[in-house]
Design a protein that fits this description.
Shape: globular
Number of strands: 35
Strand content: 25-35%
Oligomer: single chain
Strand order of the largest sheet: 1-15-12-9-2-3-4-5
Largest sheet: 8 strands, parallel
Helix content: 10-25%
């Protein structure tokens, strides 16, 4: 019997109060047509109601690929647990995602889990274990002593527990069933066998399907095309039809944000450096160039979303990846691509010209096992106690993404971002940095609003090395606190740096000045 049906039929059996899980990584791998059908059903019938949604990663970009915005409707969504959320306003359109409206107006029970915990939790649900146990995240916002991942006042249930196991504190994520899973693949046959040949990521699609079927639930797959049964090698089928109940064919949808068909996201391609976008001149480009100086050939290097992911594009523009030099580096992200170039902005997560791809859950095994000794990550706030915040600040509630796992397990850390934000304007002509207008908000503060990672603990207890790279200065984090070690030419150390920091910072006796080449257009 064929499992192929339209999207309306696929979502018609979802009942009030059920739990729905869905894959997607920003714009990549988002089952947009199925999520849209569920949203339309609710608008037309006011059913189903009071659903719990589980998104291991933020799904959709809220504009061209709305993703979880399709289901961000009061009455349809009662609770959401997500590894990350879409930014409060889209940087290109200025539109505010509907889901963020629900969260900021306290109209939904919202929780944020680290992506690593979200994906590993799926595997525990799949094998019917009591839940997921880990020490990663202790002392951060996911720790019940610091909020337990709750993002709204309506979120009152404790979904994460602090426990002691063999004399050590651990965080425990109890398992609960998933009734419906929605995944996206490239192609399916009539039996529901799924392959991902035109998708640059697989994320946690297999883990989600296994978790849903372990509880007797329903798996819906969105694909671009149907192929004859038996037409693909068995090795190409990543999810067997035994795990799939319905197949929805939605041809012509975007592969990812602003990407429809580009083989460069699927396999190695020639002349990679020439194909990559150029970074606009400005503070982020200066930061990217300085971060790039910390990257070593042959060392697996992982990059987070934000200013840190620009480093590879800066290397390409500056000629460091020409003539086969890209092959000397090992670049990856939390979503599993290896080789090629890490992209920035809405194309982040998938590498350009990749050589290999790990499933998302296995990628976090690699991360948690110390496989990425170098990590470049963004920061929104950093405080006097050595706490870093990227998860909740101002009117933004993006969550941690993969930040906590990555930061906990790397040996060398670089945290990248501007020193101030909110109107910062700089001039870099002549190889000298001049602050034309200072940002309204300093990012080095006395106390962070949210603890995403306790980097001081990592430096003190696990021997991590940590740098903070801004557009005007570089700091290292020592057991005694933050220390200024480098400054851009033209910067007044007192006026432009120290007076803008909400706590005392020491200054190195060997304070150095950047080479002016970091400031070139």
């Amino acid at each position: 019997m064929s499992k192929i049906c339209d999207a309306a039929t696929a979502v018609s059996a979802i009942r009030d109060g059920q739990t729905v899980g869905s894959t997607g990584v920003i714009g990549w791998l988002t089952p947009d047509a199925v999520l849209a059908a569920l949203g339309r059903r609710f608008e037309a019938t006011a059913s189903p109601r009071e659903l719990t949604f589980f998104f291991p990663v933020g799904t959709g970009d809220a504009v061209g690929i709305p993703g979880m915005d399709h289901v961000a409707k009061k009455g349809l969504m009662r609770r959401i647990v997500s590894g990350s959320y879409i930014n409060p306003r889209h940087p290109r359109t200025g539109l505010r995602p509907a889901l963020m409206e629900l969260i900021q107006n306290d109209l939904v029970e919202a929780y944020s889990w680290p992506i690593g915990a979200s994906m590993h939790w799926l595997r525990e649900v799949a094998r019917r274990s009591p839940g997921y146990l880990t020490e990663i995240g202790l002392g951060t916002y996911i720790d019940p002593r610091h909020g337990g991942g709750k993002f709204t006042e309506q979120a009152t249930q404790d979904l994460v527990e602090l426990v002691e196991f063999r004399g050590r504190e651990q965080l425990f994520y109890p398992a609960w069933p998933l009734d419906v899973g929605i995944v996206r693949a490239s192609s399916a046959d009539e039996a529901g066998n799924l392959s991902f040949e035109e998708q640059p990521l697989t994320s946690s699609a297999l883990a989600l399907a296994l978790a849903v079927k372990a509880g007797g639930g329903t798996v819906i797959a969105q694909v671009a095309k149907v192929v004859p049964r038996g037409s693909r090698p068995a090795q190409d089928v990543r999810i067997p039809g035994a795990l799939v109940d319905h197949v929805v064919v939605a041809p012509g949808e975007m592969t990812g944000t602003d990407v429809r068909e580009d083989p460069g996201y699927l396999r190695p391609v020639p002349d990679v450096a020439e194909s990559l976008p150029r970074l606009p001149s400005g503070p982020d480009k200066v930061i990217a160039r300085r971060v790039a100086q910390e990257i070593r050939p042959g060392e697996p290097s992982i990059f987070g979303f934000g200013a840190s992911s620009d480093a590879v594009l800066a290397m390409a523009e500056d000629g460091r990846l020409d003539d086969g030099a890209l092959d000397d580096y090992v670049f990856t992200t939390e979503h599993g691509p290896f080789g090629g170039a890490v992209m920035s902005g809405w194309q982040f997560s998938a590498n350009y010209s990749p050589e290999a791809l790990l499933d998302g859950a296995y990628q976090f095994d690699f991360i948690d096992g110390g496989g990425c000794p170098f990590a470049a990550l963004a920061f929104a706030q950093l405080d006097a106690s050595g706490n870093v915040n990227v998860s909740r600040f101002g009117n933004a509630n993006p969550g941690a993404g993969g930040f906590i796992d990555i930061a906990h397990n790397a040996r060398r850390l670089v945290f990248a971002g501007t020193l101030t934000t909110g109107g910062l304007d700089v001039d870099m002509s002549g190889g000298v940095l001049h602050i034309r207008r200072e940002g309204k908000v300093s990012k080095l503060v006395g106390q962070v609003d949210h603890i995403t990672y306790r980097v001081a603990d990592g430096v003190r207890d696990r021997g991590q090395q940590a740098l903070v790279v801004t557009e005007r200065a570089v700091f290292d984090l020592t057991p005694a606190g933050l220390r200024l070690i480098e400054a851009a030419p033209g910067i007044d150390i007192r006026r432009d740096v120290l007076d803008l920091i909400g706590f005392d910072v020491s200054v190195s006796d060997q304070l150095s000045t950047w080479d002016a080449s970091l400031l070139r257009p």
